[in-house]
Design goal:
With 578 residues, this protein is α/β, with parallel strands linked by helices. The chain folds into 3 domains: 2-122 and 339-356, 2-Layer Sandwich (Nucleotidyltransferase, domain 5), CATH 3.30.420.40; 176-334, Nucleotidyltransferase, domain 5 (2-Layer Sandwich); 376-577, Alpha-Beta Complex (DHBP synthase), CATH 3.90.870. Helices cover 35% and strands 20% of the residues. The strands form 4 sheets. Strands 13-21-20-14-15-19-16-18-17 form a 9-stranded mixed beta sheet, sandwiched between helices. A 5-stranded mixed beta sheet has the order 3-2-1-4-5. Helix 15 runs parallel beside helix 20 (550-559). It is globular, with a radius of gyration of 23 Å.
Amino acid sequence: MKILGICAYHPDSSACLIVDGKLIAAAEEERFKRIKHWAGFPEESIKYCLKEAGLKLKEIDYVALGRNKWVNIGKKIRYLLQKMPDVDLLKERMRNWGNVLGIKERLLKIQDAKGLKFMNIEHHNAHIASSFFLSPFEKSAFLSVDGFGDFVSTRWGYGEGNNIEIFGSVYFPHSLGILYTAITQFLGFKKFGDEYKVMGLSAFGEPENENYKKMKKLVSYNDDKFELNLEYFVHHIKNTNFCWSDAEPKLGNLYSDKMLQLFGKPREYNEPINERYQDIASALQRILEDIVFGILNKLYEKTKCPNLCISGGVGYNSVLNGKITEFTPFENVFIPPFAGDSGTSVGAAFYVYNHIFHNERRFVLEDAYYGPSFSNSYIEDVINKKVKGNYRIKKMNDDEILKYTAKAIADGKIVGWFQGRMEIGPRALGARSIVVDPRRKEMKDILNERIKRREPFRPFAPSILEEYVGEYFENPAKEPFMQRVLRVKPEKRDLIPAVVHIDGTGRLQTVSEKTNPKYYNLIKEFYKITNIPLVLNTSFNENEPIVLSPEEAIDCFLRTKMDLLVMENWLVERNELF
């Protein structure tokens, strides 16, 4: 059975292809369009998936869409009749609905295929399937939390084999995702997807502060129930200028003027971040954790299952994720690399295969490398066309290039690392990464000055050989997708200061020889030189989506002050280093 999964007209649009219950290809449209969180139709992702699988559209058995506008229709109609929201809001919703209904026509423009069969999968069910059906667990509790999808913001339940059972849901207009985004905007971070910045900022504040008490006025909660105090929000009554079309997603302010009465003046973009803003961020993170842990503890009471699968956009909150086994009875946690909306294409496809057709599960997601790859010969051609001037260019075998690159990292060089198939999801996991020495505290500032140009309070992440994670981190866990923040052991913090956040934590990625042998062996070579089994890993980009192709990697290398570019077996180095 061949299933094409699609997330369209929603932020982080994407596509995937599964064959007989196994994931073959997956990619996000932003990587092709070069616009972050692209929210339109994922045409290039679809073309890539078909090409990677060697299939034509007419050979696809089912097209699975990660949303279903017809579900919860009664709740939607009742809400409209009771609240009568802004007319512009209704127009925007109808326009988006029309785009979704036109997906079949857009798809047939790619390739002619008569008789395509479509299945619409409810948004949060697709999220849940993207975690549980791809997890290593035969039985597991699950939780999906985001802004909204198909009128639902939160859903939890229990999965066993190829079946999922829903225990509870939270419906529009109440949402933890909306709460987090509204405060993110209040703190001056207005771009879509900026919530991770507030998560990083939260470590600088005091969670038990006056703003924590104020934050409790925004949302009431008890066990697995929560409600927003809607006086502080406008998403339910006004058009917030959201745009989910063929462009970068946009979202207007979600908070009302009453929020200003509670917290004072909002921060302006580029305004210095003072202690008040730090404390608001910390209070927000604390409230989120309080509510989610309440839901999870109640969920464990019902399931008594030690396994947990997390999905939804809030599933990217790695600070929260790292505390789950500490503040709940759950022992084993699985969070896919595409916990957010891009994962609904994957989840929709697996929901059709496993849940609807009751096929046995045949796949466990062990890595994130399902995007395009490029041959050495293709890379050579691109280098010859694009690299001119004072650069050293050389092809090496695997052993030579690993040793040379590890030595360059240990010598303080900034390395662009471009290898194998591109990752799916927002994290660079050793396929499209920038890699530097974690022992050098100054590396954080150097990276920001020369390449990343991002806020100084944001931490950088360590990639560690998985057999050493227990030596460096408390409550160690296998975490191949960089989805959990854990405490670095106090005696190790001074050894790797560039990857330790102000609160003594690090958002780790454990690296396995099985799933990424070349990246594993690069870190191993670095370990031989330095006796440190980890490197600093950040995404290969400069205020843009992570690079997809050799062309984009070279462009990024040339316009920044990166020292060394390694693409497969090709090395490009600035000659002034010699």
